[in-house]
Structure formats: C-alpha cells, structure tokens
Amino acid sequence: MGRRSDAPRKGDLREQALLDAAEALLAHTSPENLTVEAIAQKAGISRASLYFYFGNKHEVLAALVERTMRTIQAYADATDQQTSVPPMQVMERAVHATEQVWRDHGTVMRAAVEYSALHPVISKAWNQTVERFARTMTHVLKSAGLPDGDGPTSAQAVADALCWMTERTFYRASSTPDGDLDRASATIIEVWRKVMTA
Questions:
Q1: Which of 140, 152, 130, 111 has the alpha carbon at shortest distance from 19?
Q2: Residue 95 gets which letter from DSSP?
Q3: Which of 49, 111, 147, 196 has its CA 20 to 30 A from that of 135?
Q4: What was the pLDDT predicted at 162?
Q5: What is the Cα–Cα distance from 196 to 82, expressed in whole angstroms?
C-alpha cells in the first residue's frame, strides 16, 4: 500500500518545526537577537540542516510571518462568505477573529510590524494581508450603506483607514505589559460601529 498523497512529507514537518521553534523563541527573544543556532537547536536539528530550508534567520522570520498571514487571510475569506449575516455582526466577528490571531500569534504579529520597515519580504506579506482584510471590510461597509467609489468617505477609503487603525491598536495592546486585547477589541468595535451607523 502506497503512502497517502496528502500525508505531510518529512521536509514539510521539519520546516514547520523550524517555524514553530522560531515563534516560541520570539516569546522571549527580539527578532534582532534571534539566531539560526537557537532556532535549529529548539527545533532539534543541526544548523546545517536548517540551511537546507532557509538561507538565514530573515527567511525564517519571513516564512513565519507569511504562515501567520495565511491565518488572517483565511479569516478574511470566511468573512467574505457571510453574505446573509447583518454587516454589524460580520464586522464584530472579523474584529474578534483578528483579536484571536493577535492572542495566538502576538509575537509573530509584533515582529511583522517591527521588521516590516527593514525587510521588504516581510513588509510585502504584512501589507498584502492588511490590504486583503481591508478589501473584505470594504464589502462589509458597502453593505452597511457607505458609498462606493474612491473619495475620502468611500467604503474603500474608510475600510483602509480603519483596518490600519485596527492593526495599530492591537499592536499597541499586544506590546505593552498590561496590554488588554479584550479592551482593545471592544474599542475597535465601537469605532467601527459608529462609522457604520453614522
């Protein structure tokens, strides 16, 4: 009997182990101080083996950001499918889903924000993710009655501004020792709600 084609390959498992190790290390190590040696050791493989998958720690970080961004994009795709749900409820679910990603992967999200100015690959992945979410939320705002078009009060312009506000608010809440993601989420929802009912 042949191996199932959908079973993960050993190389895929090792790559995921390296990404998991990097994410775990980011909980107590800054991206600048993260080393290839530490990632390999945490993953239980040799440094030489790590280089089979990634050329340096920046490539590891970029892959880790991209993996986390796929989670957010999956939430955005799911939000797009909620056509029969009232826009206000869709917005609240989207904000709570974003909060959950920050809760589960805050170290990666913070690294993406902080490293995006220095590394084009990370910047591209992060910007594309926020822009993808903004496109989704543009549809939500249109459903709530905001106008189409490209003016400063259009659904697209407002969604862009609010999605970047959402990103920065969660970043600040996640970055401070007494950061309260629940409170941040409640405030973000209130801002979106006021825009949608204005």
A1: 111
A2: H
A3: 111
A4: 97
A5: 17
